[in-house]
Amino acid sequence: MHRTLIVTVLIITVLGHIAMAAGGQKRAKAVVLHEIARYPWAGGEPFTQVGDVATDRDGNVYVTDEYQWSVRKFSPNGAMLARYGRRGKLPGAFQSGPARIDCLNDTLAVIGMGSNRVQFFTREFQPIAEADLPGAILDLALLPDGSMAVATVQPPARADRTLTLYTKSGAEELPVPLVGQRRDPVLDMTCLARDRNGLLAVAYRFVNTVMVFDNHHMLLKSFSLPGLPASSGGEIAAGSFNGMPDELIRDIGFDERGNIFVLSGEFSAHPGRDVFVTDYHGTVRATVLLPDRTGLLYLDQRGNLFTREQKRTVVRKYRLEYRRF
Amino acid sequence: MKRILRIVMIAGMLLWPVYSGVAGVGPAATPDSSMEEYLRNALPLVAGVTSGRESVVIVFDFLRFGCVPCLNAFLDLCDTLRSPGVLTSPVNIVLFIRRDKESKHEQERRMRSWLRSSGADLPFRFVEAERYERFGIADVALLLFDRSRVFDAFVPLPKTGEERTFLIKRIERLKESVAR
Prior knowledge:
The structure holds 2 protein chains of 2 kinds.
Chain A: H1 2-26, E1 30-39, E2 50-55, E3 61-65, E4 70-74, E5 80-84, E6 98-104, E7 107-112, E8 117-122, E9 127-132, E10 137-142, E11 148-152, E12 163-166, E13 172-175, E14 190-194, E15 200-204, E16 210-213, E17 219-223, E18 249-254, E19 260-264, E20 274-278, E21 284-289, E22 298-299, E23 304-309, E24 314-323
Antiparallel strand pairs in A: 1-24, 2-3, 3-4, 4-5, 6-7, 7-8, 8-9, 10-11, 11-12, 12-13, 14-15, 15-16, 16-17, 18-19, 19-20, 20-21, 22-23, 23-24
Chain B: H1 2-23, H2 35-42, E1 55-60, H3 68-82, E2 92-98, H4 104-117, E3 124-127, H5 129-135, E4 140-145, E5 151-155, H6 161-179
Parallel strand pairs in B: 1-2, 2-3
Antiparallel strand pairs in B: 1-4, 4-5
């Protein structure tokens, strides 16, 4: 009798632990990708080297090709609508391959590889204006108040200008202080993302620090990603470009729910494929494994994620499905 | 008898490589083992190359062509050499590009698209990766060949207008030296 009772209690206890463990797993948050479009369509002229992606308020997709000196515009489902750009020095032409692009309202901003020039266009690729900024531009985010946040490469003496707000005419408005700057042109390299409310997320490429600024450009929070080293390491002399360390963070984006997506670099379990999904405090809510190694992560505020794949020759669009968020 | 035959067979297997090397029997040594020799032999095989012209051959790995100044220097050079009046007579500008891992058809398509977009629609040929690695090229190699496809010189990729002018003068001297 006693033996039967003891065995029964043990069985119930074990089953209870198993159930709790299984239930805990079921309760884990997840973000699942569902491919819904590809650019270009199979059989279409491939990209030579995709630089960046942007979308407009109609869901049209703009993709820069750094080696074809052009920007292509696609419908949301992938039909090519227009192609713009040529190599050259005339107004509206690209002196270096278009690398970065952003779109807000009816304005496109395009930046060439290694360039300090921002070229503005309408959504129909009518040139509007150009602005030359001090320093090679790494990334740019057009802001709702009409200004633009620009990350540039700066020498140590001007490190405080690494992230600066400018007007569209190129006039400096305000430098934005970064957390933990090294005052080194390489280690201070950053990538940017903007959400629909004008919040700005900034991540160093070679240092494990993500910063979130409010729409008054005040620091809300900075955090580091778990499981990644504090920095890429390697000896980089101040002001020196002798060699580039491996990237720790490759790109960053906001979804429409206010989550921050951070694409990891060489130091995660799946280099160039692991994406950390965090809240503004840096709490990791989920991780996503992209199907292909990439250096680009773009979220369009409509529940879609874009990456460049196959050695930067195609862009894929994924619908995000959130589970237990 | 069997023992003798066995000894002869083993000796033959051991000594054959020595014999074939001395007698020139067996697979010939690679005739184009050097980069210059390889390119000299490959030039006539490239569609669009005109015989009887000097050739400027540019060898590179497209996937490593990420340096913006290098890319612009390459394109500016191509523009310059093809501009009317720069040279007394046209030269071949031929590209040899390292084969990468995608299908040959796709790589050809991508290269053709890139060159056309860049205004440098030039004849090109792929070099197999293994052979390319043996060339030992760090980034871009530029070689000059005279109109008889005799190798003349390695030249650094010009990055400034002055360096391009120097290259143009060198090409003109090459034309003159062969004409004499």
